[in-house]
Each structure stands twice: as structure tokens, then as C-alpha cells.
Design goal:
It is a single chain. The chain has a single domain, classed as Rossmann fold (3-Layer(aba) Sandwich). Helix content is 31%, strand content 25%. The chain contains 10 helices and 10 strands. The protein has a 6-stranded mixed β-sheet, sandwiched between helices. A 4-stranded antiparallel β-sheet has the order 2-1-4-5, covered by helices on one side. One of its GO terms (molecular function) is ATP binding.
Length: 283
């Protein structure tokens, strides 16, 4: 999506939006301004400021419990599905408030797709997994082309083109994860979020997913959560390092420590906490 055009996050919206005026080297897809995330009274993540660039891979790294997956789920309002979850601060999608009163969360999740840690294909055929989203969105014609294009883009077509009617659960773990990526692509999203997409995969399947991410980033903005620092260094252009701070009551709160070009984060981090984590001294 061109940031100069409408995000159309409201059902039937026809408003048009000007390009972001934020002073930066790029017009961000997401702008997080003093973002905090609460589950009930508990503040899980505190005070995150970040700009996410278009058509790049941004990696979120840090120890367990630091809030990186929580922040990721805020970007397509998946946290709305959790009882008592709420945010403070602001998330802009281009220049539109992602949590504005008129914004349709269903449209948000169509434009901002998600791939989860564990492959989760539907217990349907390979074909029906890919066609499901377009059908829900009202597409009735040309589904064969949609399915083929999505599987081609997910580097899976050659492996499954002769068994599209077979159950997707019969695929290997790596194939299932690429199928889930194809399923996300089929509804023409603008952004793909990935929460530990390779943690359940073997090294060969992981390499295929990493290669696929780099190809897809030519056309999609990708944000990935990973515990694998080598993976972040291999695939991402920018990296955000989160940590967990403990307050005087013993409660842990996720905090963004540093966000910069991946090359700088891994070669010359500005914060000693980042250096300690990537060198293995803590975390």
C-alpha cells in the first residue's frame, strides 16, 4: 500500500490521508507513541516508541517475558481478543489511529496478517486453506488463480500443485508454515506479522522460511518476533531489543531498550544492556 493513500480501516470509509509528515528517512507504516499494554491492572509493556519502515523486515528480540509478542499482537489488534487487555498511548497505521473508534478490527486483521509460532492450517484441503480468506471477503470467481499465486509466492506451489485436494494437515511442519504464509498472502495484506515462525521447525525448513521472508519483504512490510538472534541478524534490516524491568513491587514490565539498524545493533549497540544480551552475558 502506498502510504499516501487511504488505509480504509473503517468499513465503507472513503477518506483519504496525506503522507506522514514525521521527520524521518522513511514514511513509517507503524508509529508507536508511548505505547503501554495492560492486562487488567497489570502493565505488561511500558512506554514504547518506534517507527516501522515499509517493505523491510523488522525483528523484535529479547528475553522471555519482555513484551515483544505483546507488542506484535498490538499491531493487528489481536490483543483485543484477550479479556481485560487494553493499550495506552497510540499506534498509527500510516497516519490513521489503529485503535480509533471508527476503525474496524476485522479490516485491520485483513490488511495486517499474522503467522503464528506453531503452524495452524485449517483441517481442510490445501486449496480450501488458501481460498478461505478470499471467500470470506466475498470472492467467488478466479479462486484457482488466487490459490496458485499465493502458493507460488510462498514457494510451495511446486511441492503441492498435484495434491491441492489433500488435507493440509498431511504436510510437513515447514510446508504447513509456508501454507499459513500463503493463506495470509491470499487476502492481499499490506503487512505480515510473524511470531516465532521458525521455532518449531528444523534447520532446513527454517532456511526456507528465512529465504521466503526476504523475498516477500520486496512487497510486504514484515515484523518478526524471534528468540534466535542469528536469525534476526540474517534476515532483518532493523532490530528492536526489549528487556524486562522489575519494579519495587517485584512486577516485570517489558521495555524497549534500543531500536536501530540491525547491523549497528549487532556490531555497535548504543546500550550496554543490548550488548550484554547479544553477547550472551544475560538473558
Amino acid at each position: 500500500m502506498n502510504p499516501a493513500v487511504s488505509a480504509h480501516l473503517t468499513t465503507g470509509s472513503e477518506k483519504h490521508m496525506a503522507p506522514s509528515q514525521l521527520p524521518d528517512l522513511f514514511d513509517p507504516v507503524f508509529t508507536l507513541e508511548d505505547l503501554s499494554v495492560f492486562y487488567g491492572a497489570y502493565e505488561a509493556v511500558r512506554g514504547v516508541d518506534m517507527r516501522i519502515a515499509p517493505r523491510e523486515i523488522t525483528a523484535l528480540i529479547g528475553p522471555s517475558g519482555c513484551g515483544k509478542s505483546t507488542v506484535l499482537r498490538c499491531l493487528n489488534r489481536m490483543n483485543d481478543l484477550i479479556l481485560d487487555a487494553r493499550i495506552a498511548g497510540k499506534i498509527l497505521y500510516y497516519t490513521e489511529d489503529l485503535y480509533g473508534d471508527e476503525v474496524d478490527p476485522i479490516e485491520v486483521r485483513r490488511r495486517i496478517g499474522m503467522v503464528f509460532q506453531k503452524p495452524n492450517p485449517f483441517p481442510k484441503s490445501i486449496y480450501d486453506n488458501i481460498a478461505y480468506g478470499p471467500r470470506v471477503n466475498g470472492r467467488r470467481k478466479g479462486l484457482d488463480d488466487v490459490v496458485e499465486e499465493a502458493l507460488q509466492r510462498a514457494a510451495l506451489w511446486d511441492e503441492v500443485k498435484d495434491k491441492l485436494k489433500q488435507n493440509a494437515l498431511a504436510l510437513s511442519g515447514g510446508q504447513q508454515q509456508r501454507l499459513c504464509i500463503a493463506r495470509a498472502i491470499a487476502v492481499k495484506p499490506d503487512v505480515i506479522l510473524m511470531d516465532e515462525p521458525c521455532s518449531a521447525l528444523d534447520p532446513i525448513a527454517t532456511t526456507k522460511i528465512e529465504d521466503l521472508m526476504q523475498v516477500l519483504s520486496r512487497d510486504y512490510t514484515i515484523v518478526i518476533v524471534t528468540h534466535n538472534m542469528q536469525q534476526a541478524a540474517r534476515v532483518s534490516e532493523r532490530t528492536a531489543f526489549f528487556t524486562a524491568e522489575v519494579d519495587e513491587r517485584g512486577e516485570r514490565h517489558g521495555r524497549l531498550v534500543e531500536f536501530d539498524a540491525t547491523a549497528r545493533i549487532f556490531s555497535n549497540p548504543a546500550d550496554k544492556r543490548t550488548e550484554g544480551y547479544i553477547t550472551g552475558r544475560f538473558g
